[in-house]
Amino acid sequence: MEPREIVEAALSGLSRGEAVELLAEGDFMALAKAAEEVTLKLWGDAVTFVNNVVINYSNVCVARCPICAFYRPLGHPEAYTRRPEEVAKAVAEASARLGVTELHINGGFNPELDIEYFEGLFRSVKRAAPGVAVKGPTMAEVDYYSRLWRMSWREVLERWKEAGLDAISGGGAEIFAGEVRKAVSPHKISGEEWLSIAELAHRLGIPSNATMLYGHVERPEHVVDHIYRVRELQEKTGGLLLFIPVKFNPLNTELYARGVVRGMAPAAYDVKVVAIARLILLDRLKVGAYWLSTGKRVASTLLLAGANDLVGTMYNEAVLTAAGARHGATAEELAALAREAGRRPALRDTFHRVLRWL
Length: 358
Known about the structure:
alpha/beta; TIM Barrel; 4-stranded mixed beta sheet; 3-stranded parallel beta sheet; 15 helices; 9 strands; 46% helix
């Protein structure tokens, strides 16, 4: 299909079959051009991002996902759990020195932690840096800890919110399809459970992001199904803040060691994934160009293929860097990426309110 035909099809509503065909067989340049036109028509030329710091409260995890290079088992010499006061001090320093307005915090499935640890963590951060929004943990962590503590999802979410949690990160979504999850995250919640926890959080007044990890064992139909289900969730609750396609970095992971994934997906596939996300989501959600997983040069290109948010400065990010990604970007660097794509950069807060144009 030509770009004009793709735009017309998207604006009138792509079917799942059409979306799968475009992702599998469409020309990436035609898809990019169409997605860019749709983005400019529905969203304008702004590209936003938040100034945030990423802190992992613990790297202990019993899930042992074959896609993860970050986790350490209990008792490992590199295992750690940060004290709430330690995290609060780091956030306060990042706020004062770097002007961050968001803490993105998550970890793993650590069986040694109780709910009082998290309540103390969130309250400590709010006391030390009251102007910083607390975003995290993931839906998967909500489920794991609810089972560990013999609580309902609702009780965990309500207590976390009361302690200072402002939003939930979108991690752990991976790909919703069951056959994919068996390969990449066999001990985590199902896609249906992720969506159910997200819906509950939204109903409780806790918004969230939604991610999609791609570039491993998925097929086009899995990607398309995932994006449609994200769109359906947003139409139901309106509680999603951002959709973030995350490129899988296989280095140091079990999938790479076993030869299941031999390298990173090509940049053309990054373009097609982001473009198809825009063509499906239309004006429902912003789409992130996650520079941390694709690299900054490709991320700038993705701003010409349907993405209109650069996610965040991501100071101190650790999960992806454990798999070999570089981390940390200044607001000026991200603004420059947006300008290179002919876009107007804006610094936003966690809830996508523009703080200032850059």
